[in-house]
Amino acid sequence: MVHGPRVTRARTLLDVGAAAVAAGIAGAAARAALDHSGTREQFGAPLTDLPTVRASLSAQEAAARSVLATALATGIEDARAAAAALAPACDLALDVAAAAVQSHGGYGYMAEYAVEGLLRDAVSLRAATRATESARAAARALVGLDA
């Protein structure tokens, strides 16, 4: 395995960038769910008129903003903080994208709707960045068990 300050810096930049991409996926998925729910009618009114749907969409949007704020606040000089921010960002992107697919009903699984691709992107991002592995490594380093 290759080590050194340049490798650590590159990995840190990758982690911060991937967290920002995850925030973008979550934001796009939340907006797509809101747009679709505003035009889809159930019980004679748009889905957004239902309090539970409105609350769920609001929570998704707030979560997307939160993960973006975290990604932007993560210092690119702190490799451990960047690694620790990545896993929750990827997990949140996956959760919001899955909820957006659900808000579309059966249509959410069709490639013609953007949320299908956003869910696929969220899954791929988490796998490509090894977000879970990065979080574990950061946790080991924080408790003094550097591997």
Summarize the structure in words.
The protein is mostly helical and 147 residues long. It has a single domain (5-142), classed as Butyryl-CoA Dehydrogenase, subunit A, domain 3. Helix content is 76%, strand content 3%. It has 5 helices and 2 strands; from the N terminus they run αββαααα. The protein has helices at 5-39, 51-73, 79-103, 114-129, 131-142; strands spanning 41-42, 45-46. The protein has a two-stranded antiparallel sheet with strand order 1-2. The protein is elongated, with a radius of gyration of 18 Å. The two termini are 12 Å apart. The mean pLDDT is 82.
Task: Set out the fold topology.
Layout: H1 5-39, E1 41-42, E2 45-46, H2 51-73, H3 79-103, H4 114-129, H5 131-142
Antiparallel strand pairs: 1-2
Helix pairs in contact: 1-2, 1-3, 1-4, 2-3, 3-4, 3-5
Keywords:
about 150 residues, mainly alpha, Butyryl-CoA Dehydrogenase, subunit A, domain 3, 5 helices, about 75% helix, elongated
The domain tally reads 1
Distance between the termini: 12 Å
Order of helices and strands: HEEHHHH
As a whole number of angstroms, the C-alpha radius of gyration is 18 Å
CATH fold-level name:
Butyryl-CoA Dehydrogenase, subunit A, domain 3
Level of helix content? over 70%
Would you tell me the overall average pLDDT? 82
Shape summary: elongated
CATH architecture: Up-down Bundle
Strand order across the largest sheet: 1-2
